Each structure stands twice: as structure tokens, then as C-alpha cells.
# Entry
Amino acid sequence: MPILDAILSAITYLALCFILFLLGKWIHQLFQRKIQVQQELVEKDNFAFAVAHVGYFIGLLLAIVGAVMGPSEGLFDDIINISAYGLLAILLLNLSIVINDKIVLRKFSVYKEIIEDRNAGTGVIEGASAIGTGLIIMGAVSGEGGGFLTAVVFWVIGQLLLIVTAYLYSAIIPFDVHDQIERDNVAVGLGFAGALISIANLIRYGLMTDFFSWQESLTDVGIDVLIGLAFLPIVRWLTDKILLPGRSLTDELINQEKPNVGAGLIEAFAYVGGSVLITLCL
# Structure
């Protein structure tokens, strides 16, 4: 009987996650009413939109995982808690995408770049924004001792820190990031995307502890993010010296007739990989 109960519980949780995923897909379409998803994916073969769309699905999955994580309080209570926090996570994820479109990519129209111009560089960052937000929401809604208010406050803090990261990244890069992205520079988009995801992962790590007090939780997040922000310029320098020996990362990204997408991917890997190592060592 215990084995049968465990199997039935697992099936119930899986079905609930599937329902939440479908709700997240439907709610996202409400937020993006101007976009005909089927047309962009199938008829137009819009790769930029596909990248952004898959990024949203990854962020949605991460947000739902955050709602499911934690010790069981009994099947009935678990269903209520997962449903409530799952719906909250979906709403916060879609709000974050709207906010990031207006602030992180503030210098141009994201809709125009992805739908009309099919700008893959913008699609990469849009997808990374959703993934980063999903990580933050995973941390905000998981853990014990908090509630809806705690989750929302942590989401607000995480969202602000993600915006700060975007501004700082633009400041340390020796070229205009937005200008390059608007030119459909996928290589630059990949590097920017890696920076966003790496900081979001550190925010997620700081939030994924049981809530005891605001001071303790905010201190944990603050330390992790400060380490990450200090780490960004160091990683970029190390990428130049170790991962791309004898080459200039900036030259590879913007000073060639065709930007080196591989170099942008290496830069993104360096940021994300460094973020993972930091969480393992803290």
C-alpha cells in the first residue's frame, strides 16, 4: 500500500504540474495577444521567436518546480499549496517579461525586433530574461517559513537586482550592447544572456533557504549577488586570457564582418559556469 500511495501521489503531482504548465502557456498568450504563435513558429519559421518562446517555457518550468519543491504536508494540502504558488509564479513570470522588455531592452521595441525583423539576438536575450526570472521565482516561492508576501517581496528584490545586472553589464562592456543587439548581433546577445542567467542563478541560490528573518534572507541574497557582480568583469577578462587565448573577445564579437557566435557562446558559458561554481563553493 505505501508503494501504491507513493505512485498515486507522484501521478497527481505530475498531472498538477502539467495543468499549471498549460495555464502558464495560456496566460502567456494573453500577455502576448498581438502575436500569432502558430503562425510565427510554423508558417514563418521565425527562429528568433522560437528561441524566446522556448526560453519562456524553460522559465515557466523552473517557476513551477519552485512551487512543487519542499516537504510534503499531505496530498490534499500539497495540491492546494502547489496550485496557489504555481499560479502566483506564472503571474510573476509574465509580469517580469513585460518589465524586462520595457527596462532591460528599453532602447528598442522587442516586438518589432523579434516579430517583424526576426532578430535572433533579441530572441536570445528575451529567452534568457525568462529563464533568469524563472530561477528567481524558483527561489522566491520555495523554502519554508514564508508566505505569499515573502514570495512577492523576494520576486521584487530579484527583479530589481536583475535590472541592476543589465545596467552594470552594459557599463563594463566596451561597446553599446543595445546597438549591437539591434543590429542582430547574436554573439553579443549570447554574452548578455549568459550574464543575466548567471546573476539570476545566484539570486535563486540566496533565496532558496528557509525564511527565518528578513535580515538574514536579504543578507544572504546581497552577499551572493555582490560576489556575482564583482565576478562579471573578472570572468570577461579570464575568457579573453584562458578560453580565447591570443584573441580579443571584443574583436570577435563586434569587429568582424560576421560576428563570432562561438565566442559569444563561450562568454555566456563562462558566466553561467562561474555562477554554478560559486553556488557550489558558498
